[in-house]
Write a structure and sequence with these properties.
The protein is 31% helix and 24% strand. The chain is an alpha/beta fold. The protein has two domains: 4-131 and 325-340, Rossmann fold (3-Layer(aba) Sandwich); 134-320, Dihydrodipicolinate Reductase, domain 2 (2-Layer Sandwich).
């Protein structure tokens, strides 16, 4: 496989740092690494494969100047909206981790384990969108079930880590916990969340829409349909929990066919990058603390509904910075290189 010039936009952020780690771990065929960030972060040093790199400023011309072939974006929607087209015009394939392009009908929205064939549509705009973190792990777990039993509806409640809101959100939770142990929690401030997150659960991620759902919840609704090419009914309740890293989801699936827990486990065992961790009698099931730094989606608490034979319940957990962001983006890049870059 040929080596390519790869830019990481937002390289100093939580997901950008994770992208570097994943690129190194999979030994991605990089000819030249181009670390990019805002003018404020330009000049900082980052390390990749035991070499030190200077972060360059993100500009409209840098992609052409550096002959970038793959541009991994994770610096916010407004940044992607402005700079991704310049990267595409310079001949790079953009893999964008923000929500800006996800629902654009001309931009493929890809989870390689679910719809790798959609990558071929990248040429229309030169952009491939990375789905929402909570959507990625859910559709990975849904795919092997849908292939055999057919999914009609999904009801999901998420338990999302603070890292999903960025580095400063993680720092806010840690500071609030310090304040708690110093008996100063009443003085602790919150900026990233609408309420204190330490020792709390907040049933709101992003802004509320007119229909009573939040933007995060509607992302799961709309992205699931686009990725799976199926008009699946989805209802989501997205909740922020005081966890640093790792999203959890309680998923209820309404199927076209009857199912058993054993049949569901067998289907999931055969799923790509799925780990079944399901021995509840021994208190063995996935938890955020057990999935950090892992590139698989973990599924447990698999059980058939008490009342309906065509309803399945399961618990899905993954590292949101990796499976839900960096790992999925790098896997898209790997698949793109396999399909287009030979």
């Amino acid at each position: 496989m040929r080596k390519v010039n790869v830019a990481v936009v937002g390289v100093t952020g939580a997901v950008g740092e994770e992208m570097l780690r994943v690129l190194e771990e999979v030994d991605f065929p990089i000819n030249k690494l181009v670390p990019l960030a805002s003018a404020r972060s330009a000049g900082n040093k980052i390390e990749f494969k035991n070499e030190e790199y200077t972060v360059l400023e993100l500009t409209e011309s840098v992609f052409e100047e550096q002959e970038v072939e793959i541009a991994l974006f994770s610096a916010g929607g407004s940044v992607s909206a402005h700079y991704a087209p310049y990267a595409a015009e310079a001949g790079a394939v953009v893999i964008d981790n923000t929500s800006h392009f996800r629902m654009d009908p001309e931009v493929p929205l890809v989870v390689p384990e679910v719809n790798p064939q959609d990558i071929a549509a990248w040429k229309t705009k030169g952009i491939i969108a990375n789905p929402n973190c909570s959507t990625i792990q859910m559709v990975q777990a849904l795919k092997p079930i849908d292939d055999i039993f057919g999914i009609k509806r999904v009801d999901v409640s998420t338990y999302q880590a603070t890292s999903g809101a960025g580095k400063s959100a993680m720092e806010e939770m840690v500071m609030q916990m310090k304040d708690f142990f110093n008996f100063k929690l009443d003085e602790s401030k919150h900026k990233k969340f609408p309420h204190q997150i330490a020792l709390n659960v907040i049933p709101q991620i992003d802004k509320f829409m007119d229909n009573g759902y939040t933007k995060e919840e509607m992302k799961m609704v709309n992205e699931t349909k686009k990725i799976m090419h199926k008009n699946i009914e989805v209802s989501a309740t997205c909740v922020r929990v005081p966890v640093l890293r790792g999203h959890s989801e309680s998923v209820t699936i309404w199927l076209e066919k009857d199912i058993t827990a054993e049949a569901a486990r067998e289907a999931l065992y055969n799923g790509k990058n799925i780990v079944v961790m399901d021995e509840p009698q021994n208190s063995i099931y996935p938890m955020p603390i057990t999935v950090v730094d892992r590139d698989e989606t973990f599924v447990g608490r698999i059980r058939k509904d008490i009342y309906k034979d065509n309803v399945l319940h399961m618990w899905v957990v993954a590292d949101n910075l990796r499976v839900g962001a960096a790992t999925n983006a790098v896997r898209i890049a790997q698949k793109w290189l396999e399909m287009e870059g030979q």
